[in-house]
Structure formats: C-alpha cells, structure tokens
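fwd from M.: "can u put these together and see what the complex looks like"

so here's what she sent:
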Amino acid sequence: MTPEIGAGAIRDFRDTFSAVRREVGRVVIGHERAVEAILTAFFAGGHVLIEGVPGIGKTLMVRSLAEALSLSFSRVQFTVDLMPADVTGTRVIEEGSDGRRRHVFVPGPVFAHVLLADEINRATPKTQSALLEAMAEQQVTVAGTTHPLPSPFFVLATLNPIEMEGTYQLPEAQLDRFLFKVRLAYPSQAELERILAATTVADVAAIAPVLEPETAAARVLELRRLVREVVVPPHVERHAATIVRLTSPAHAADDAVTRWVAHGASPRGGQALVLGAKVRALLDGRPNATPEDVDAVAHASLAHRLVLRFAAEADGADPERIVDGALTAARRART
Amino acid sequence: MPGSTSSALDPIPLQLRRVRRRWNTREMVRAGLALAAASAFLGALLVLAALATAPRRFAAAATLLAVAWLASAIGIGVALRRRWFRATTAHHRIDYHARLGGRLAAIVELGAARHDFAFRPLLAAENAAMRPLWTAERLVPRRVPAGALAAALAAGVALAAAAALGPVLAPPPPAAVIVRDTRANRVPLRRGASERLPRGGVVAETQGVTEDAPEAEDSFLGGVADAVQQRVQRELWGEAEAIRAQELARAEEEEPSPDPRRERPPDGQAGVPGDESGGRVEPGNESREPDAGATEVAQGGTPEPGESEPTAGTQRGAGTADGAARGAGTGTSPDLYGAPSGGIHRAAAPFTLGLTADVHASGGNSRPPTGDTPLQMPDANPALAERPEEAVAVPRAPVPPEYVAIVRRLFEREP
C-alpha cells in the first residue's frame, strides 16, 4: 500500500465513520459518546452490550445504525419463554411442488447484519447461550447442519438495570464475548427537551443511508480490514497488556483491585483494547495506535469483564473506578 | 523495509541523537541553575538568620535551611533524572513533545521488525514529512532555560540584598564589651587588646579569666552553625562588631542563675571575678575586688578625645550618685559602664532615676539576713569621699552586656 493509498483509505474510513455518526445523531439525540463507542466496536468487529433504562432510545439507536449502514436489521425481544430456535431458526417440514416433503431450515432473526437482542437477561441461559454462540462463531448449527451468519454480523444486546426480578444474569464467560459495554445515561434537561421537540412532530427525521445497499456489507468488511492494518508498536501492546494484568488481583497495583476483584479481565479484554485503539487511531488520521488510544477505550473494554467479589457489591464499588486505578498504574509504569 | 522508506528513515537516528544531546545539555544547565538559585536563596535566608537571630535559634534555622537545601538538591536531581532523554526512550519523549501522534515511536520501534505491514510506507512518509517538526533547534530553542536563569538571578539578587542589609541588622549602638577568652567558638581577638567599634564603643579582651561561661553547642551541627554565624557576622559587620553581637546575644540568652552559690559566695568571700555576668549584685558587695574584665575594658579602651574621655566630675559623680558606700570606687574604673556620652552627657539636665523592684516574701514575713557580714575593704581613694560633689545623673548609661538582663528587668515597670 503506497502512502497515497494508505492516506486515502484512512480518509475514507474517517469520512464514513463521521457520516454514520452524523446520521445516527440526527434521530438519536444526545448519547454522542455512546454512539461513537458503538460505531467503534462495530468497525472493530465486535459486539456491544448496552445498559440503560427503558425508553432512552436503545432500539432507535440500533435501528438508525443499521439504516445508515444500509445493513439488514432484526430485533428479538428476549423473554423467559423464548427458545433457542426462536433466535437461531429451526427446521420445518415443507411440501414441495412435486408433493415430496422435506426438512427446510427457516432462519431465525439472528440471520441479519445487525441484531438487536433486547433485554437479553430476560431469556433463559439456554437461549442466551444460543445467541452468544452465534456471536462467537458467527454461525449456527441446527440439526447437525451449520449455517453461517451474514457478514458483517453485529449484535447489540441491551440490559435493563431495573426490574431485575425474573431475569437471568449473563455469566461472566458470556459477558466476555462483548467487545464493549456501553452505559446509556439518562438524558440531560436540554437533551430531553430536544427529544420531545423532535419526536412529537409530523415530520420525524429519517436516516439517509451512508453506504450503497448493494455494496454496504462489502464496504464494511473492507473498513474492518483496514482497522486490522493499523500499526500497533510494541510499547502500545505492552501498555495494553499491562492494563489487563493490573485488573487481576494477582498483579494489582491498586488496593481496590485486590479488595473487590475476584478475577481480572481476560486476554479478550486486551484484544478489545487493541482493536478499539486501532479504530481510534484511524479516526485521528493516524496509521499507528498510541497508548492514549488504548486508554480511551479501556473503560468500555474492561469494566464488564471484571468479576467482582461480594465485598464490591456491598461497598457499591464501581468497576469503572477499578479500571481507572489500573490505567493510572499503567501510565505510571510507562513513564 | 522497502528501499524508499529506508532512505526516508535514514536521517532519523542522527536527528534523534542531536535532539537528545541538546535536550540533555539544557536539562543539565537547568538543574545547575536551579541548584544555584536554591543555594543562593537559602544562603540569603542563612545570612539574615545569622545576623538577626541568637546563636541557638540560628542553629535551628541553619539546620532547617540545610535540610531545605538537601531536599532541593534531591528534588532537582530527581527532576533531572525524570527529564533526561535516555537513548532507549528518547523517541517516545520526542514524539510526545513534538506531538507526532506516536508516529516516530512507532517507526523507530518497528524499524527493526522483519515483518512488513500495509501502513509502513505511509508511516515512513509521514515521519519523513514530520522531521522538521522535531529538529533539535525547534524542540530546544535555547540551551539556557529562561525560567531557571531568572530564578538564579533573582536568588543572587536576594543574596546580595541580604549581604547589603547586614549593617542595618547590627545591634543597637554599643557599649563596652567584655570578652571572655574562655568562651568557646568565638571569633579570635588578640588577648588583652581592644578594638573600637564602627559606631562607638570598645571591645576588649580579658586575659586569663576563668569564668564558668556557658558551654558551647555540644553537637557537631551546633558547632558548625555557631562557626557559620560567626563567620557571617565577621564578614558583614567586622570582627569587633561580630564579637559584640555574640556577647550581647549570649547575655540575653543567659538567665540569672538561681544557684544560691552564685548569690552568696562561700566563706564570706567576695564574688569570684567575673561573677557579674551572673546578674546579681548583693548589697555590700560593691566594694569588693573589682572585676578583672572590667578593668581590662577600662584600660584597653581607647575612647575618642572629647567624646569618650570622661570628665573628673563625671567620674566622681558616678561614684556618688548611686549611693554607693565610701569604698565603692576602690579599684573601679570610671568607664565601668562604658564610654560616657560626651556632649550629650554634659548638656543634659540632671534627673533622678527611680528604681523600684517588687519584693515578695515567700512566707509572708521577712527573714533575717544570713551569712557573714561582708568585709569592709580599705578605701583606696579617700580623696573622692572627702569632697563630694553634687550628684550628676547619667542621662544615658551604657550597660555592659552582662547586666543587660538585670537592667531590663528593673526598668520593666514605671517607678
């Protein structure tokens, strides 16, 4: 890749990213940082877990993203009686024109580029596992037949932090499969006023697709490949690895970690750091990642991967504070 | 690495070395200036403390200043170490200071990597384009940091000002000072000699006085502090003034001894010469053997004609005005209380100096005097008693340092 081509590719990535962010921002008022984090995870090739109270625009955000990217979108409302087949699809007996009956696979809602798994913690662990397996393998197996999922495949799962009765908390191993966890904060007064003004009029803003529908998937994959090409120097890798290790009680430099954390972030957390840093580097117009890029995505990458002790819950400890301590210690070690 | 990118990156190591050398030179200069500034500033404080505080307080102040200097030196060293560009990390530091976005660090670290990557040509091209942003002259425009230089100059000015303020901080106009040669850690003065002070008064050295002077500072630090203070005072005030200041300071520090042995010498004898420094004079003891030191002052002083030369009347008046006994003047120098004030003395109207002292009996009743009656010494100069003259009050009596504490206590209250 010549310098000119490389610079052009980076510019194209930035333009696409900015255009999608701008389009989503037309209908999703506020949550700018959340939208940026979701787009970062999308282009890094990961999935996102969104935590937020009902009615603050989670579904709208995901739908807008899919529309802006011209990708297929489906939504599954997870309930306690939802079965795995309701997510992955199932085989049905279909009678052909010749009168012969045969088993035909009917794809479930998981067969879409962008899937919104709404309130994923309301489904049983069995159903959750079906989805999470699809996320990890990017394929589903039904009756011994493996069906690849469309690419790109992007899952946005939501968690409702209230109404916890009758829910099944996601196991840590399954939480680990989400590249980022994003918290949607309650809108501010000004944002709320803008939401009320924009959503109660006759002409609600519509999303204009940024990518051509025919080539959208290929373009997204191309941009994801570009992200992987970003240079990560050894000192940046070292910094990311240090942060991940510092979240573990065995290597902690912070008392909070030893007191509150039972298990630190996994190597997947390190991968999330580096991939997120690469996207940040491209957004900054650089072909190389820096430790600052890593720091910028540390909270979204690591906070949900920490397995906290009971003492942490009793003390009301915030995982983001623990990540803060690890970041501070890693910066100190770097200088 | 492709040939084109290799040629673009060739000058980078050389430029890194140049930047590193220039940066480190500046940091060394900065550290030196900072150390000089700290030393000069603390030195100014030390000079002021040496001139304005008593020896014991100066010892504490000097210790504090020494600790502060040590802390400053350590801090400067730590800062130098932190800011130093090491060969292994210079590219990171340059990258940070020149805001290169990690490009220089990336290309330097990946320069030796065998595997190629798609963005390498772009990274190399960007580094080549950004080289002018981190030249040695651009990153380190001046070898001498202006802030550190200004601080050093300011501290130097402060030190010079402190030295210039030295004479202002000299103690009030002096009296004659008796210097005990048994005093430790004192500025040496020739034995038996005297020296005129710049603003009047005389410093004289006594010989062979075995006064139980207070011990000098026992600790090493105390001794060093004492020596430093003496040195500073001698440099800024002159030798004689320094001696006088030390004696004054010591006299003020020494409280009258509550030891009854000092109040009343054993065996009914007169006080040991030099006991006057203890601050007590008992009735009846006025006619005892005069203090050798006082005699030395009288003989060694070289008062100016017309100014410090006492008149005969004054001498006699001084002997009678205080109501002393007949033998009070025996062997006593007319300049016991220092050089008289000359014209002012003669022109001033006589006045009565009332002295009162609060006396408290511990048991509510007075106690009879104890001990032997003091010996009556023969009058060595009866002529003084034969023709008493009108008492002339001394308008301003210089007080020897040994009596300063007593006189101050006496004059604390209105009569």
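replying to her w this: Residues 187 and 239 of chain B are 7 Å apart (CA to CA).
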